[in-house]
Design a protein that fits this description.
Blueprint: E1 2-9, H1 13-22, E2 28-32, E3 48-49, H2 60-70, H3 77-97, E4 111-112, E5 122-123, H4 129-143, E6 148-152, E7 154-162, E8 165-173, E9 179-189, H5 210-217, E10 222-223, E11 228-235, H6 245-248, E12 252-254, H7 262-265, H8 275-287, E13 298-301, H9 307-313, H10 315-325, E14 334-343, E15 347-348, E16 354-356, E17 363-369, E18 374-375, H11 387-409, H12 417-433, H13 440-454, H14 461-478, H15 492-516, H16 534-537, E19 539-545, E20 550-556
Helix pairs in contact: 1-4, 1-11, 2-3, 3-11, 5-15, 13-14, 13-15, 14-15
The protein binds flavin-adenine dinucleotide.
Length: about 575
């Protein structure tokens, strides 16, 4: 059995930031299924929010209000307050760790505009902000290599719990296939989002809901799963992101007639309205036949910015356009469509990053979560751009502090290694022995297709019911698949199958929660219930139970400073 004081699963911004905190006093392991610098955080482009006020006067109060309005008032306001107040210190801390931010002419950290933020608040490193932060944090981990052990290309399969206490995780080494129990006094999940469930997505291949589903199987509910964010500027057909920074720098959205259609949908904020609103506007233009050339895409036009500004502020976007569609945005508009981008829902946590299991706040002792896999909920029904890198670092740090405090006060529990290992071994053996005729690839593609079509930007009862039926039948077919690689070494096929199972179950949770929420709020839009309904639905969904018997309960929203009002832009 492997033993560490604290085990962190995930080496994106949240996981690495947590590790730095724990390593100040205890021994910590960071486990990641991809090499740390390949975590999805490294793909973040546009920026990280903080009310520094470097380009216009700004305050945490304004950041707080923008975040809550952007989230359609589903945010827990106590957590939002803590989070926006911590933002400036997080930026300076990252800077001192060596993260290189773009600068103003007089040497301050530059800040640009982003959707839903009333002030230029996004600190950035050109359009490679996630890359810059992730590498700065990775360097800090290397520096602390005496107290931080990184398990590269190790996969977490399940949580080890007894009653309401978490004692470790069951993991496997991807290289050898060996299954191990990793015991810890505290476990922190930082496993990222689950955009790969959808056909068109910006997310990396590793974003497959492993953490949320491992927690769910250990009896922890999923909070607000129905809130999935669709980003307005995904590369047509491929989903690759063109950051909102492109619009923050002044880019236009044009329909097939060449009109800046946002005038009809959000006249005061135009292209910089929150993402849920812009994505719905785009999809409506496309659905009503005003896509470009009658097709299902519209244009992102940056030509008027000029080559010099594009090369200074958006170099990666230009290169992505050239590499993936042969379009140079200096001379031609880019073809785009909405793309699944971010999961507002996840493992329920409080503002101390402790995992809580119900409306009463009952804790799973020794278990913490942060970053995109967690639902604090600072983003409510819709996250504002640049608020997620901030979420991952603020609550990564917080989770590290909480886990450290906790782990110092407890001893290792008694863990019975055998049965924990056997459960995971059995699930491997079960897959190895299947000799069915179904293709896992086909099942994955059908899941992505149905989730995009029936549980996407626009939803209704009929579509969602059909979606749930399809996902259930795919799950049955999943059990009749066949694995072609029966080896143990670097068997990536078996890991993809396990990820597919996580995604199928998560898909069912998302669609079931979406069916029950008979209103429209933030990223969740029901054409058959197209208004927000605070009387009946100003509450968080908590999906409990098992995948075969999901039970939806609800939890009140924490409202401190801002009473819900109509959300217009
Ligand atoms: C293309 C793109 C651009 C973005 N741009 C911005 C932006 O400009 N500003 C902003 O605020 N937000 C942005 N976001 C969102 C933001 O990047 C993410 O929400 C955030 O980085 C998530 O960080 P994380 O640490 O929670 O998870 P990730 O960075 O996704 O890391 C997850 C980690 O978990 C590990 N893991 C997962 N499952 C397992 C398992 N079973 N076993 C072992 N390890 C596992 C992975 O290996 C990985 O290390 C962007 C997102 C995308 C996709």
């Amino acid at each position: 059995m492997i033993k560490h004081d604290v085990v962190i699963v995930g080496a994106g911004l949240a996981g690495m930031r947590a590790a730095i905190e724990v390593s100040k006093e205890l021994d910590v392991a960071v486990l990641t299924k991809v090499y740390p610098s390949r975590s999805h955080s490294g793909a973040a482009q546009g920026g990280i929010a903080a009310a520094l006020g470097n380009s216009e006067s700004d305050s945490w109060e304004e950041h707080m209000y923008d975040t809550i309005k952007g989230g359609d008032f589903l945010n827990d306001q106590d957590a939002v307050e803590e989070y926006v107040k911590a933002a400036p210190s997080i930026i300076y801390e990252l800077e001192h760790m060596g993260c290189v931010f773009s600068r103003t002419a007089d040497g301050k950290i530059a800040q640009r505009s982003f959707g839903g933020h009333s002030k230029p608040r996004a600190c950035f490193s050109a359009d490679r902000t996630g890359h810059a932060i992730l590498h700065a944090l990775h360097e800090q981990l290397m520096k602390q290599s005496k107290s931080i052990k990184i398990y590269n290309e190790w996969n977490m399969h399940s949580l080890v719990t007894e009653g309401n206490r978490c004692n470790g995780v069951v993991v496997s080494n991807v290289k050898t296939g060996a299954i191990e129990v990793m015991q810890a006094k505290a476990v922190i999940f930082c496993t990222g989002g689950y955009g790969r469930i959808f056909k068109i997505t910006t997310n990396a291949f590793a974003s497959t809901a492993d953490g949320v589903m491992a927690a769910f199987r250990a009896g922890i509910p999923v909070e607000d799963a129905e809130f999935v964010q669709f980003h307005p500027s995904g590369l047509y057909r491929q989903g690759i992101l063109f950051s909102e920074a492109a619009r923050g720098e002044g880019g236009y959205l044009l329909n097939g007639k060449g009109d800046r259609f946002m005038e009809q949908y959000a006249p005061s904020r135009m292209e910089l309205a929150p993402r849920d609103i812009v994505s719905r506007a785009e999809q409506s233009e496309i659905d009503e036949g005003r896509g470009v050339d009658g097709k299902d895409f519209i244009h992102l036009d940056l030509r008027h910015l000029g080559e010099a500004r594009i090369m200074e502020r958006l170099p990666q976007i230009r290169q992505l356009g050239i590499d993936f569609t042969s379009v140079d945005c200096v001379t031609d508009p880019l073809p785009i469509q909405p793309t699944a981008h971010y999961s507002m829902g996840g493992i329920p946590t409080n503002k101390f990053s402790q995992v809580v299991m119900d409306a009463e706040g009952t804790k799973m002792e020794g278990f913490f979560a942060a970053g995109e896999c967690a639902c604090v909920s600072v983003h409510g029904g819709n996250r504002l751009g640049t608020n997620s890198l901030l979420d991952a670092t603020v609550f990564g740090r917080r989770a590290g502090m909480s886990a450290l405090e906790y782990a110092k006060t407890v001893d290792f529990a008694k863990v019975n290694e055998g049965p924990e290992k056997t459960k995971v071994l059995k699930s491997f053996e079960d897959i190895y022995q299947r000799d069915g005729t179904e293709s896992y690839n086909q099942i994955r593609n059908e899941m992505k297709e149905v989730m995009m079509e029936k549980c996407g930007v626009f939803r209704d009862e009929e579509k969602l019911k059909a979606c749930i039926e399809t996902i259930k039948s795919l799950h049955l077919r999943f059990k009749k698949g066949k694995v072609t690689d029966k080896g143990k070494l670097f068997n990536t096929e078996i890991y993809e199958i396990l990820e597919l199972e996580n995604m199928l179950e998560m898909a069912q949770v998302i669609a079931t929660c979406a069916l029950a929420r008979k209103e429209s709020r933030g990223g969740h839009f029901r054409t058959d219930h197209d208004k927000r309904d605070d009387e009946n639905f100003l509450k968080h969904t908590m999906a409990h139970g098992t995948i075969d018997e999901l039970e939806l309960k609800y939890k009140p929203v924490v409202i401190t400073k801002h009473k819900p009002t109509e959300r217009t832009y």
